[in-house]
Fold this sequence. Notes:
Blueprint: H1 2-17, E1 68-95, E2 99-100, E3 103-104, E4 106-107, E5 110-111, E6 115-146, E7 152-162, E8 165-175, E9 185-187, E10 192-202, H2 203-207, H3 212-217
Parallel strand pairs: 1-9
Antiparallel strand pairs: 1-6, 2-3, 4-5, 6-7, 7-8, 8-10
Amino acid sequence: MKIIKYSLLLMSVLMLAACASPKRGDPEYAPAMPVRQMTQNEASDSIYQTTSTWFLLEDIKPRHIGDMLTVTLQERTDATKTANTETKKETDLAIASATLLGAPITARDREILATKLASTYDFKGESDSDQSNSLTGSVTVTVVDVLANGNLVVQGEKWININQGDEYIRLRGIVRASDINPDNTISSERVANAQIEYSGQGTFADSNEPGWLTKFFNSKWMPF
């Protein structure tokens, strides 16, 4: 039994310690490549060629897989929560002594069937939470899919190496083509089903993270 207990404890510790850290070049966030359009070569002596035409008045908004789009991060959240809980319960129970032929049942001149029970339960709890987050910046993403209604599924990441650590921003979501600005940018507030991840790894990031043993004692696996 001890071996089983130690094995379960070791497995729990390894599960907590083996948090997969993101890495550069993750295929899941790799940019989507545009589908190559097969065009037929035209034998023409004209200066104008359809395969090398630049449209001066062309709309630069993305609409195909592989097109790029810059998302301006404008995220801010403020949350405040206050809770007060108070419960109280009192119990008072008394059972009179039973009698036999009109006389109480005694043992050594003491009534043995008389019972009295009293209990009091009082609980009072109070909690207060205040949290504020802000994220600004920009990240350029690529279109990975075009939905039937014309909405664009975008995703991308940005890695920045600063001193002894890496910081990264990952974004994934759905945007509407009509919400894209003329300069090919869109606010993150208009990204549907947005999944924004901002974190880092390295010396500075590790110094702000508790060790694996601390994680175990703060996890749900700790019975006390």
